[in-house]
Every structure is written in C-alpha cells, then in structure tokens.
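Escalated from tier 1: iron/sulfur cluster holo job.
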Amino acid sequence: MIEILIAVLAITILAAILGILLGLASIYFKSEADPMVDQIDAILPQTQCGQCNYTGCRPYAQAIANGDDVNKCLPGGQATMDKLADLMGIKVIQSVHDEATKIKTVAFIDEHDCIGCTKCIQACPVDAIIGSTKAMHTVIKDECTSCVLCVAPCPTNCIKMIPITITPEN
Ligand code: SF4
Ligand code: SF4
Ligand code: SF4
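Tier 2 regenerated the structure:
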C-alpha cells in the first residue's frame, strides 16, 4: 500500500515538474506577433511557391518588414508590388524578375487541347484565366504575372509560357 502511495506521489510530482517546464518553455520560446508582418503577409498571394527566393510568403513578409525589397513576388505581379510599396511608404519599383530577364513571359493556352478541367484557374493567384467547366479556357494576357503556377497542373500540357517584349506599356 505504501509503495503504491509513493508511486502515485512520485508521478504527481513528476507531472507537476513537467507542467512547470512546459509553461516556462512556452514563455521563453513565444514568438511575438508582428502586426506589420501580418499586414504584408495578407497582401502576398499565399501560393508558397518560393519564387521570391524565400521558403514561402510569411518568410518573405518577415524579410520585407526587415527592409528587403518589395519587388520579388512574381505571382503577385504589379498589383501586389503597388500595395506593398504603399504599405511601406516607398516608391514603386520594377519587379526584380523583369530586371533580371528583360523578357516577360505570359501563359498561353492551346485551346484545341483544353478539356475545361479548371485546374489552371484554381492554380492562378491573380485570376488571369477565364473559362468554365468542360469549356475552353483562355489567359488574359495583361493580367498574367508570369508565375508559371498554372503550367504543371494542366493534365493535357496545353499551357505554354510565351515571351513578350517588355515595353513601357507592359
Ligand atoms: S513568390 Fe510570392 S507567392 Fe511565391 S512564396 Fe514568395 S511571396 Fe509567396
Ligand atoms: S502564369 Fe498562369 S498562374 Fe501565373 S499569372 Fe499567368 S495565367 Fe496565372
Ligand atoms: S488545366 Fe489545361 S486542360 Fe484544364 S482547363 Fe486549364 S488549360 Fe484547360
């Protein structure tokens, strides 16, 4: 009987110690929410594609809050850059991707092979594709941000990225 009481007491003390340690750990490792990072993150398209050279949208939002440029999110395109620049109170700058290549590509759908599965629409973060189920789909060229995210999901491989020359108008 005494042994059982000692065992119960030991388990109770151990549980209490563990509880205290967990409580201390949660205080020590607690990450402070940063409202600015939240606001930046809310503007980003949340595709987690990594084309900004960060592991996802949140790490890039953190980097912008720490002073990184706002022009690295390819899927977000100009509209996202404008919103980020506005939020950060800075001048709008050209996309780093445009600066790197000077050649912009846009998605083009070979409509003969499109089966209207809508997978490309679901993948596009900026609603640059129009079409309905079992009907031909089309890319709105001026809305396409060149992110390539629609290409892989297409089951018939009918989406190609085609180059267009960058002019002051685009
Ligand atoms: S490129 Fe844009 S959408 Fe892709 S992970 Fe970076 S911030 Fe997110
Ligand atoms: S490349 Fe495809 S997914 Fe990306 S913006 Fe253009 S149409 Fe949309
Ligand atoms: S993913 Fe391909 S086949 Fe499906 S709707 Fe888009 S273009 Fe057509």
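The first strand starts at residue 103 and ends at 109.
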